[in-house]
Amino acid sequence: MNPVILNILKRVFSTILIFFIFIYVTVFITVIPKDFTIKKVDDKWTVTYPIKNIVQIVNYNLKSLAQGEYKTTSNGKDAVLLIKNSLSKSIKLLTGGLLLAMIIGILKGIFDSRRGNSRDSSLKVLLTIIPISLPDILVVALLQSFAIWLIQHGIKIFKVAGSGTWQHELLPIIALSILPAAYIARVTAMSIESCYDKEYVKAAIGKGCSSRRILWNHVMRNAIGIIFESLSNITSMIIGNMMIVEYMFSYPGITQLLMNSYKSYDRNTTIVTIIVIGIIYFILDTLFQAIKHVTFKPLKEETA
Amino acid sequence: MIKLSSIRKWNFPLIIGGILLFVLLITSMYPEKLATADPYGKQRLEFQVDGGKTTFVVPPVPPGDEYPWGTDHRGRDLRSLIIYGCKITMITAILTAIGRLIIALPLAIAGAYKNKFATWFIKQFNILFSAFPLIVVVLMLSNFALFIDILKKDNFIVVLLLTLFGWSKLAYVLMEKVSEILEQDFVEGEIAIGKSRLEIAVQNVIPHLIPSLIVFFFLEIALVLQTMSQIGIFGLLAAGGYYNADGDLNVPFEFDWASLLIFTYMFFGTDKIYLIIYPAAAFAASIVGFNLFGEGLRIEFEKRTSRVITFIRRIPSYVSPLKLAYEIKNYEQHKKTVIIKLACYTLVLGIIFFPQPPSLYKFDSAEAFNTIEEISGDKYKGRLAGSEENKALAEYISSELESYGVKPYDNKYIHEFDILKSVNVKASTLKLKDSFGRNKELIFRKDYAVASPVTFSGEFEVEKVEVRDLIELNSERVDLLMARGLHSKVLILDLSVPMDYRHMTGALQTLAIIIKPRALLVIQDWGFEYDAPKHATIDKLFQDTVVISMSKEAGEELLRLGEPTIEFSVESETIANTKGYNVLGYIPGTDPEYKDDFIVIGSRIDYVGDDKAVRYPGTLEAGSVAAQLEIAKKLAQSEIKPKQNIMFAFWDGTFNDKRGSSSFVSKYALSGKIKSITYFNIGNIAIKEDSKVLLDTSRIFPKNKEAQEYIQILKDNARAQNIDLQYGNLNTPVLIDMTSRNIQSLMVSNPEKEPISTTMRDNMDMLDKKQYKKIGQMLLDTIVDIARGK
């Protein structure tokens, strides 16, 4: 068989396998009795629940899940509709956040990079490290304070909590984009700097190309592949951020649904929501990997 | 003059990161030096009158002059909380990073050696727990009983979960780094000379990996802190704690920043957003610190001229005592080094073993034990408030105070107050008889307790009533109940099963007000290893009905017998319309500015009275009175002239409705005769079973600088006496009286896991004499230091 096809098949099989493990682990963690422990009874260590029973419970839940029995929430609402609505809101948030993160991140990365200038101090490292180090809760809290300040001064562009209008979505999108933007900026700056060390850039400088032409025609065309490659690393980060953003802005997205169902002991909806979030992760990861393969074109000398 | 070009060469990330980490280290080590207040003190609701304008201070208090970073919704000073929370936050993050390194390193090395399983495992684990948000995993498993049983402490559970589910990303980057090392030429050389893989890993890979490991370690700590901030907002309490019935958080000695974020969800998008911003900023500063330090180290390690690695390598040899011994032997050659090293060693050892200044006055424990024996002896018959014996005890204490030279307060030592009724259930028997004539005698205060002080005896048939029959009544249902003739029977009511509190009180009210049975046997969810506390059994609801509270175990036995006959008797003593006797003495202050300000040290003199055949000596309780007398003696006979008045208060009637402490508060504090009171309550101290001492400072306002200084003095003296001081919530009626008048109160007592107070176990055998001496010395030193204005 064609080795390329074989490789693809291997990857698909591996992804499917890991996805099933993911579902099993999700159900296992969700349904395992919280009072499970090992106790000494009559000088013998015994488990409070037989492992066999736990496995049976997990299998039973998996079976119910496969048979599509998790269609209603514990309070009788339509779980499918609920997930559909919250998922569409989260996708809107994710798309907006990612696009904004890429625009801000790449521009900031270009600004932060030395662009061949060897006379630079480590001060610039601060510019990239500090934004990455900000906890998302601080970012959201500061944004909320800013929005409240604006509202108090009669400027009502942002709405601080809830959903329904574009004004509700502005702040969550901005909040969601800041940390990934800082990360993308760092990767962009590093990849630009590494490109400036390459011979072909030195040759272009020698030819007398303008710095703008060198940046966009020589450096960025090669750096963009590395930037897209790094995107797959921020997938889990952005999902974690989404949890904070949706929670703090009371934005009714999928992670908010997860926390609500978890807090209201709605086990079935919790399981389904975690799986949906997992699917988002797998799709985003595959998407970024695909973009990486499309955009990353190794230099001729490297392929030779 | 430093040139600009040389400044540009400075490693700013390392410098700034190092400064931030140094600040974190100092904050973790010496929080009390940086925080202005104890972290557990609470600002309560307060009326402030300023220029004729009255304002309410309601927590959370926004940042201002009194509280620069504001208070949380419980009124605790946010700045102090953050400073004190630094230590456990850092420990949790550092332990997690170490745990992750321990798991990641061997797997990364195996993966770099192309071990298929290791590579597969790292990759798949990474994917799996990237798809399953780490926050959710940690939240779901944090209350898992197995982890709680094994690890006990909540912050260790957080460490375990963050380690177990978060190591894979670190393993991934480490694997890449190890692969880079393995591709280097010298590794080929090592292979050529016949070294095994393990030898290469240990002798070559790891030494070359150390700089990267150090860098990754710091970056990983930053990553853990980032996750902790996220977990905190979703309500995971890394440092543990639980809610008591008042909805208050019982916190352990220390707590962390993540816990501060738990209740902030109430304030998202409001003007109280500072409650999130300050803890989040603390997280941000520490994450920036660790990230910058890690990056700075990376820059430093990558420099060709870097001397950091050489410096690190030299550390063991520099601090080695063997090398120092060699250098001393060859002193002439190493003169300068020896002097520097000896100076450093002396400084470090001096700091560690710096002798504590001796106490100015010795706490005479022998004298105190004599007093304890006197007070807890037969003479005062268990010190029942309102009894003649207690009057005699008050006279004894006042004569002692007089002999020390302590002045009477308000021209008298003994301050009388009215006690409506003082009761003592002295004896009881209870026998169960089933239909086959078999008998089972229950043990008084072990299987059952008498909850109402009525003298009563006889043999009765019993009938069980259900809670559901006694609640949500209308006239029809009341008639049905009355038709059952319950008022002439002895009833059983099972309250041992979990139920709505309102249903429970509703059922009891129906029985007390409407049915009024001959007697009531209430099965409750209690059971003590030894015996039930005597004071807790007095029920205020039933005045004329005998109420028997049965332990769960005894109750189950009763229910198993169906509806047996019971034979029981109760013998009670009631002293009506009597008097209580507070004893108040004081050492006058010398500063006219503080003439109406008092520091009051208090303990209680009354107890629960002896049973007919069993003595209740109340030795531990007597210990607090004896300690207080000893402090009063030492202070009165010293040369110390305190600036404010120091009062020694001995409260009577503390188990009664009208208490001595409430009488004092009404007469002196509420009337304005005393303007300001800082109150120290001494509870029962020095229990043999537990060497810890519990300190409750939650009733002290964080903004009250003087009281906060007193707390600090107490902590310093506890450290000097090597006493394990712990924080906790303590409640006594005296403190409730004080708190209701905004008096700043703190309490020192023993933690009682199994009740000892007001049980017959509270006797001389239970007193840890060595510990008592230490605690007595701590209290004496504290009062002396305060009086001296330290």
Largest sheet of chain B: 15 strands, mixed
What is the fold-level CATH name, i.e. the topology of the largest domain in chain B? Aminopeptidase
Shape of chain A: globular
- Based on CA atoms alone, the radius of gyration of chain B comes out at 33 Å
Please give the radius of gyration of chain A in angstroms.
24 Å
CATH class label of the largest domain in chain A: Mainly Alpha
Count the beta strands of chain A: 2
| CATH architecture field of the largest domain in chain A | Orthogonal Bundle
Number of domains of chain A: 2
Strand % of chain A is under 5%
The chain-level mean pLDDT of chain B equals 86
The largest sheet of chain A, given as strand count, sense and whether it forms a barrel, is:
2 strands, antiparallel
Put simply, the count of helices of chain A is 12
Our count of helices of chain B gives 27
Q: What is the CATH T-level topology of the largest domain in chain A?
A: MetI-like fold
Structure description:
The complex is a heterodimer of chains A (304) and B (790). By secondary structure, chain A is mostly helical. Chain A folds into 2 domains: 1-69, no CATH class; 85-303, MetI-like fold (Orthogonal Bundle). Chain A has 12 helices and 2 strands; from the N terminus they run αββααααααααααα. Chain A has helices at 3-31, 51-66, 79-112, 123-133, 136-152, 166-196, 199-207, 211-231, 235-248, 254-263, 267-295, 300-303, and strands at 38-41, 44-47. Chain A has a two-stranded antiparallel sheet with strand order 1-2. In chain A, β1 (38-41) and β2 (44-47) form a beta hairpin. The two termini of chain A are 24 Å apart. In chain A, 37% of the residues are buried. Chain B is an alpha/beta fold and 790 residues long. Chain B has 4 domains: 84-319, MetI-like (MetI-like fold), CATH 1.10.3720.10; 324-353; 367-415 and 581-788, Aminopeptidase; 439-560, Glucose Oxidase, domain 1 (3-Layer(bba) Sandwich). In chain B, 47% of the residues lie in helices and 16% in strands. Chain B has 27 helices and 19 strands. Chain B starts with a helix and ends with a helix.
